[in-house]
Specification:
The complex is a heterotrimer of chains A (about 290), B (about 375) and C (about 325). Chain B is built from twelve helices and 14 strands. With about 375 residues, chain B is of the alpha/beta class. In chain B, the strands form four sheets. A five-stranded parallel beta sheet of chain B has the order 2-1-3-4-5, with helices on both faces. A four-stranded parallel beta sheet of chain B has the order 7-6-8-9, sandwiched between helices. Chain B has a three-stranded antiparallel beta sheet with strand order 10-13-14. In chain B, helix 5 crosses helix 6, helix 8 runs parallel beside helix 9 and helix 11 packs across helix 12. Chain B is globular, with a radius of gyration of 22 Å. In chain C, helix 2 runs antiparallel to helix 8 and helix 4 packs parallel to helix 6. In chain C, the strands form two sheets. Chain C has a two-stranded antiparallel ribbon with strand order 1-4. In chain C, strands 2-3 form a two-stranded antiparallel ribbon. The model of chain C has no long low-confidence stretch (mean pLDDT about 90). Classes of the chains: A mainly alpha (about 290), B alpha/beta (about 375), C mainly alpha (about 325). Chains in contact: A-B, A-C, B-C. Chains A and C meet through helix 4, helix 9 and helix 11 of A and helix 6, helix 10, helix 12 and helix 14 of C.
Chain lengths: ~290, ~375, ~325
């Protein structure tokens, strides 16, 4: 029993990380149908920037704030200078641009920062919480809480604010949205900024557990993307459920089957789920218009 | 036909310019290096590149080798063996180097060996695995200790503590996998039983399920974690999180002060085999390596602003062995230099004292390794090792 | 035949490419250039296959390096474990890749857009994970050495030999792809690309056509992977990895989706660019990212179709 609890605790820790990274994909996708492969670099920027600003004797909360603001700026710049000029290009081309952006940001980060691993102190200390023979770090709960908080904010934003409705309208039909007076460019601007901030928050919260370095983004984005797809892309609760599920599968496989093949089992299950439910767990099927 | 030749010559120059090749006609000794400066093995390639640059500059400032300046050409393979192979061909065919120091990873080194064997150019690798020098390739040498030696050192230390049953938890990356294979191979010969094996991926953020299984395995007396990068730091933290009190051994893959910073208080009591470099200042004055390692670590820290790692030390040793061989050969002739590298005797480097032979292209023995223990956030020498 | 008729001949691009393959070495100052040339053709071969899938059938694959990996490890493992000659292993690998593509393609090609992307991505990762873990066969992450290709007692080594082999194979693959595009299957694929539902209404067996092109593209990738392994003499699981898959997709998109000539240009750009960028040292990666972004923003149809459009306008 104690071991099962420990596996669950590990699944929660890892799953919360995937969920938080996966959440970043949602809003950009909702507003513009783009899968942003530079999302992992937002996560990296959040963590690395906090580490380096804090090194200059800036208090940690201020460093985190600066990191979030700078990352938001990078998100805005990504849209204004790279995505917007290519508007109307095919989705694959837009994805290629985000991949180019991720290579670029990684290349800049290795010059501005360094190539070493870094950590941040956890929010609530590093003494594990014991329950039923299992141990979980308080920071894991902080990551989980962060993911829940963002889901609630996103939900409130989409359902309760005019701006949120505008995002939905832009996502449904960009031309129609413009016709009824929505500045769709600003809406997409906004979605990039918010996604960048979500990425930065993810980076800041997970660094005390997973550590960070200039190239941490690629694999995190890969898992986060898989999580978001498993849950159904564009759905915030879907990203969280997908992330937690992915984390749980990995932990259970590592615990009960084989740690060598835990990633393989995870992706096998994603394949099976997608074949059974082609739009992911929480996604809505898209109707092709002829 | 003549016209065509002129045309093709002109085009060749254009193409060379396009590919960024600098053809300089000068009496310089060209030394090449293909290092994993970026990518997952950048913790190896980055200090290696910095070290080579620092020391080539220093050597040139003192007048070079045999009156000639060294020109260092470094390419970054990004940790991908295919790229390494292409850059190796470029160094040989286009840059016309006379010797090569580098190849950060075993995969890259193995991919490059045929290029240097064919071209008959000496190649000093900075990678760990034993297959680089076993079987011996005529033109290939290496400076770091092998993974096998690290395992033997760890197991010997276990024996002195009367611990014989261990669990392994290793990374699935190249370093972890190669070290794991060597440990499994030497365990029976040293009387160690491996009761359980677990692994983790290169970017995993939580290893508690694997460690829970290790904790629950009856009879395990100690845990060995061969790996590099952030993995071992997380394993060490998770180890304490789960309250496991068995002795924990890390490998030379984390032989840098950074590991202690990342693992924090959880690193207390962790042991690992490492070269003298990490404890430069703490070596007894009688130790022959002391002046070399103290010099290198001070110099590196001052010029790069980063903590010293044993990986940069491998590059230092590679360059110095090569330079010494060129001085003894009194030329940069590839065949003569190769013969002199093979005759390296009593070279005192950061990794140990090197005595090469035609059958041993590394020339280090177990005495080059020290068993270290982390105490109050710093390395200490385990007495009697 | 008049010059005009020759120019309009649909084999014209193939002849032009064959001419490039033959003439280019006149400008090669060293074996290093042969190597780069050979790499371009090997990658271009895989990219042609992927382009059939992406550009013509409109189906994305983020796991094509998986098929390259199968091809590569076939020629590495086959000769060592079973004593089979390399060329036989190359064919066996191609058949194996095709079979795997057939088995995997049936369920996952029903997925659309990003979901297909993540499914193929998962497939590629699975191949890479198996290659990494089954160290007894594959040598694990450090990889394994590949016996040299032997054809009638002639052991193929050296970059120049490989340049000619890769160049010839690319021209053959190029012609086959052109013919496929001109066949009824090709036209059906085009219809699928434009609108799957409309194609179905027209009576096209959409699932079957998609599967066919998926199998063909996997075979191309597998042969390219085998060549790469034989050429390099050493292979690591990176060659089946996620980043390699992304690289292949980037080559397709950069050269121009749906342009077979573009496949060669895309491969050439992404093989040569890192070699050029070495002069910028630590700015290498940042510049590579910028250039990829720039190409995609300003030549969003891909290099070849964008240039072709400019020419078409200019001729008017």
């Amino acid at each position: 029993m104690a071991e099962l609890l420990q596996f669950v605790s590990s699944g929660l820790t890892v799953g919360a990380i995937y969920a938080l990274v996966g959440l970043g994909f949602t809003l950009i996708y909702k507003a513009s149908d783009i899968i942003n492969f530079a999302q992992g670099e937002f996560v990296m920027l959040g963590g690395m920037m906090t580490v380096f600003v804090a090194m200059a004797d800036v208090p940690l909360p201020v460093a985190a704030l600066i990191a979030a603001i700078v990352t938001a700026g990078v998100g805005l710049a990504l849209h204004r200078f790279a995505i917007e000029p290519a508007r109307g290009a095919s989705p694959v081309v837009l994805i290629m641009i985000t991949i180019g952006a991720s290579i670029f940001l990684r290349g800049i980060a290795q010059i501005v920062f360094d190539k070493r691993f870094h950590s941040l102190p956890p929010l609530f200390g590093s003494d594990p919480i014991q329950f039923g023979g299992a141990a979980i770090l308080p920071q894991s709960l902080a990551v989980l809480g962060g993911a829940a908080f963002i889901v609630i904010l996103l939900w409130l934003f989409i359902e309760r604010t005019l701006l949120g409705k505008a995002v939905i309208a832009t996502s449904a039909n960009r031309l129609a949205a413009r016709l009824i007076g929505i500045d769709t460019r600003q809406i997409v601007d906004f979605s990039f900024v918010v996604s960048a901030v979500i990425g930065a928050i993810a980076g800041i919260l997970i660094t005390p557990i997973a550590l960070t370095s200039y190239d941490v983004g690629t694999l995190l984005a890969l898992k986060g993307f898989a999580a978001a797809m498993l849950g159904g892309i564009g759905s915030a609760p879907g990203a969280v459920v997908g992330g937690l599920l992915l984390g749980m599968i990995e932990a259970m496989t590592a615990g009960y089957l084989s740690s060598n093949y835990k990633d393989a089992v995870a992706f096998l299950i994603i394949l099976i789920v997608l074949i059974a439910i082609p739009q992911g767990l929480f996604g809505r099927a898209k109707i092709e218009r002829v | 036909m003549r016209a065509l030749h002129h045309f093709s010559a002109a085009a060749a120059i254009g193409l060379s310019a396009l590919l960024g090749v600098a053809h300089q006609a000068s009496a310089q000794i060209k030394i090449g290096a293909v290092l994993s400066v970026t990518g997952p093995a950048s913790f190896l390639g980055d200090p290696e590149k910095k070290t080579l640059e620092i020391y080539v500059e220093e050597i040139n400032a003192k007048g070079g080798v045999n009156g000639q300046k060294i020109q260092l050409i470094v390419y970054d393979d990004g940790g991908i063996a295919d790229n390494a192979r292409t850059f190796a061909t470029r160094l040989v065919e286009d840059d016309k180097i006379v010797a090569m120091v580098g190849g950060s990873t075993t995969g890259a080194t193995m991919a490059m060996i045929p290029v240097f064997e064919d071209a008959k150019i000496p190649f000093i690798s900075l990678a760990g695995a034993i297959q680089i020098i076993e079987p011996v390739h005529k033109w290939v040498f290496k400076t770091p200790h092998t993974d096998k030696m690290a395992c033997e050192k760890i197991f010997a230390d276990l024996k002195t503590r009367n611990l014989t049953t261990v669990a392994l938890i290793s990374g699935t990356d190249a370093f972890g996998k190669s070290m794991r294979d060597q440990c499994v191979a030497v365990a029976p010969k040293t009387g160690i039983t491996i009761a359980l094996e677990e692994s983790y991926g290169p970017r995993d953020s939580d290893m508690t399920p694997q460690l829970t299984n290790i904790r629950n395995k009856a009879g395990v007396q100690a845990v060995v974690n061969p790996g590099f990068g952030q993995g071992p730091a997380i394993v060490t933290r998770n180890y304490r999180q789960l309250g496991i009190t068995l002795p924990l051994y890390q490998s030379h893959g984390v032989a840098s002060k950074q590991f202690i910073d990342l693992a924090g208080p959880a690193a207390e009591g962790v042991r690992l085999p490492a070269a003298a470099l990490l404890i430069a200042e703490k070596l007894p004055a009688s130790d022959p390596q002391k002046p070399v390692v103290v010099n290198y670590s001070r110099n590196y820290q001052q010029k790069s602003g980063q903590a010293v790692s044993t990986f940069g030390g491998h590059a230092y040793d590679g360059l110095m062995i090569l330079v010494a061989a060129m001085q003894r050969a009194k030329s940069a002739d590839t065949a003569k230099v190769r013969d002199e590298i093979e005759r390296t005797k009593g070279y005192i480097g950061t990794g140990g004292i090197v005595n090469m032979t035609p059958a041993d292209h590394m020339g280090l023995d177990l005495s080059a390794f020290h068993m270290l223990e982390i105490k109050s956030g710093d390395w200490t020498l385990v007495p009697g090792t | 035949m008049s010059l005009r008729a020759l120019l309009d001949n649909r084999l014209m691009p193939a002849i032009a490419i064959a001419a490039i393959v033959i003439i280019l070495p006149l400008f090669f100052p060293s074996a290093y250039y042969y190597r780069i040339g050979a790499l371009v053709f090997i990658f271009a071969l895989a990219v042609v296959g992927l382009n059939l899938l992406m550009g013509f059938a409109g189906q994305v694959s983020l796991g094509h390096a998986g098929f390259m990996g199968i091809g590569a490890y076939s020629v590495a493992i086959g000769p060592v474990a079973f004593g089979a000659p390399s060329w036989l292993c190359l064919f066996a690998g191609a058949i194996l890749s095709g079979t795997v593509a057939f088995a995997v393609g049936r369920p996952i090609l029903r997925l659309k857009g990003h979901y297909l992307a993540v499914a193929t991505l998962g497939f590629g990762l699975l191949v890479a994970i198996v290659l990494t873990n089954e160290a007894g066969w594959t040598g694990g992450p450090d990889g394994m050495s590949v016996p040299k290709l032997a054809l009638f007692e002639w052991r193929v080594r050296g970059s120049d030999a490989w340049y000619w082999i890769a160049g010839t194979t690319f021209v053959v693959g190029f012609v086959l792809a052109l013919n496929l595009m001109d066949s009824p299957t090709g036209r059906a694929l085009h219809a699928i690309h434009d609108s799957e539902i409309a194609a179905r209404v027209l009576g096209i067996d959409v699932a079957r056509k998609k599967l066919t092109v998926f199998v063909i593209s996997a075979t191309y990738a597998s042969v390219a992977g085998s060549y790469l392994a034989l050429f390099n003499g050493h292979i690591t699981p990176d060659s089946a990895g996620f980043l390699r898959s992304i690289e292949l997709v980037a080559m397709v998109v950069l050269g121009g989706m749906g342009s077979i000539v573009g496949s060669l240009v895309g491969a050439a750009v992404l093989v040569v660019l890192p070699q050029v960028l070495t002069t910028f040292h630590e700015y290498e990666q940042a510049l590579l990212g910028l250039i990829v972004m720039g190409f995609m923003i300003f030549l969003r149809q891909g290099i070849v179709p964008s240039i072709a459009a400019v020419f078409a306008r200019w001729r008017k």
